Amino acid sequence: MNTAHPESGFLAPYGAQDERSRGRRFPEPKPEFRSEFQRDRDRIIHSNAFRRLVYKTQVFVNHEGDLYRTRITHSIEVAQIGRSVARALRVNETLTEAISLAHDLGHTPFGHAGQDALNECMRPYGGFEHNLQSLRVVDELEERYAAFPGLNLTFECREGILKHCSVRNAQRLGELGERFLRREQPGLEAQIANLADEIAYNNHDVDDGIRAGLIDLTQLNEMRLFRRQYDAVTAEYPGLGERRLVHEVIRRMINHIVVDLVRTSQERIEASHPASIDDVRLQPRPLIALSETTLEEHRELMHFLRERVYRHYKVLRMTTKARRVIEALFGAFLANTELMPPEHHELAVRAEATNGSEGRARAVADYIAGMTDRYAILEHERLFDPAERT
Ligand code: MG
Questions:
Q1: Same domain, residue pair 81 and 186
Q2: How far is the CA of 3 from the centre of ligand 1 (A)?
Q3: Are residues 308 and 320 both part of a single domain?
Q4: Does residue 319 share a domain with residue 309?
Q5: Domain ends where: 314, 342, 370?
Q6: What is the Cα–Cα distance from 330 to 363, expressed in whole angstroms?
Q7: Is 70 exceeded by the pLDDT of residue 378?
Q8: Which pLDDT tens digit goes with each residue over 124-138?
């Protein structure tokens, strides 16, 4: 059976390759007609956690409008950008796609507000990191296969999902945590997915921010990244309607930044000419990078969004509500795990038997992190609204 990666002749030596993968935690026979990384991607798409991303917020709560990004459309945009970059740099496009699609699987309901609130609740019990939770989802929480827990993904995919990690957690993660302790880089596919994530949200939050009426073109024109494309589009198409103008500007911004990313990364790769993925890991700095100017402009826009969108009073009201919901759910379930559905209560009992109060709290956090926005709101009503049926 020919199981060679269809792109294996196309791949640069520093891209991730099936034959040189560090493998899966539970060894499996090679897939037929697919590469190992295709199998990773397919397992991610078929997971429950992936489907839940449909109803998880990016910035705006799901019921605020149908056109706002959710975690699933965000993840797909990350994958699209990541794949373009991976292909241009001749590294593994499928692995980049898999990492991109999985990168937010562990995200809580209500975006960053939810993650911060759950982290706060979990502080006495080892904290809550959404990257680590994404790994927990694919390693342990998904129940789909007879032979192993989780999705049993390749080392390279798991390495990419675990973007950040505290030293304390890295020490407990064995092989996967080593790079954080040794300060090594992940593979290029992981580095690409990481920057594709930033590029995707920076640009789509401009679009969503305008749609929500939180920011306008005058404010955005103070941003160099936006202004450059705005001037070009208005010069070429005077009198263009605002909707098409905004979309054209954003389209060009993404293109500008992706082209810069590919060129800068190409230069870095050529300068250090890594012979393998292990050479990539030993580099003192990431090889996937933006040029200094573009990085500065990209950060300027990030800062702008933080101030004008994520901290806009309308968004703050929503995030404050979200925080209250998470805190209330956590407090109630931790005090009495029998309030959770029986399978989660049983997991909590078992976790407490082996890991004490930290285990019990982790089971509660797993249950809450898995919730969609609307499910969390519903659970909150069922627990706290006396008029609501349980
Ligand atoms: Mg993301």
A1: yes
A2: 32
A3: no
A4: no
A5: 314
A6: 10
A7: yes
A8: 999 999 999 999 999
Same structural domain, 326 and 290: no
- In angstroms, what is the span from residue 334 Cα to ligand 1's centroid? 28
Between the CA of 147 and the centroid of ligand 1 the distance, in Å, is 30
Angstrom distance (rounded) from CA 7 to CA 17:
9
Task: State whether 166 and 53 are in the same domain.
Answer: yes
CA distance 18 to 27: 14
Q: What is the Å distance from ligand 1's center to 175 Cα?
A: 24
What percent of the chain lies above the pLDDT cut of 90? Answer: 80
pTM strictly above 0.70: yes
Distance 170 CA to ligand 1 centre (A): 21
Cα 349 to ligand 1 centre (Å): 32
Could you tell me which residue, 172 or 76, shows the higher pLDDT?
A: 76
| Residue 81: predicted pLDDT | 98
Q: Is residue 336 part of a domain?
A: yes
Give residue 195's domain range.
33-314
- Collect residues with CB below 5 Å from ion ligand 1: 104, 197
Does residue 242 carry a pLDDT above 80?
A: yes
Summarised one tens digit per residue, pLDDT across range 77-115 is 999 999 999 999 999 999 999 999 999 999 999 988 899
Distance 357 CA to ligand 1 centre (A): 31
Q: Tell me, yes or no, whether 10 lies in a domain.
A: no
For ligand 1, the distance from its centroid to the CA atom of residue 250, given in whole angstroms, is 18
Distance between CA atoms of residues 74 and 77, nearest Å: 5
Domain end, chosen from 258, 293, 314, is at 314
Q: Which of 160, 146, 171, 142 is nearest to 366 (CA)?
A: 142
Sort 299 into a burial class: Cβ within 10 Å, 0-12 / 13-18 / 19+.
middle
Q: Do 220 and 301 form a contact (C-beta atoms < 8 A)?
A: no
Between the CA of 103 and the centroid of ligand 1 the distance, in Å, is 6
Distance of CA 385 from the midpoint of ligand 1 (Å): 33
Interval between CA 145 and ligand 1 midpoint (Å)? 27
142: domain CATH number? 1.10.3210.10
Query: Structurally, how many domains does the chain consist of?
Result: 2
Q: What is the CA radius of gyration of the chain?
A: 22
How many angstroms separate the CA atoms of 112 and 60, rounded?
11
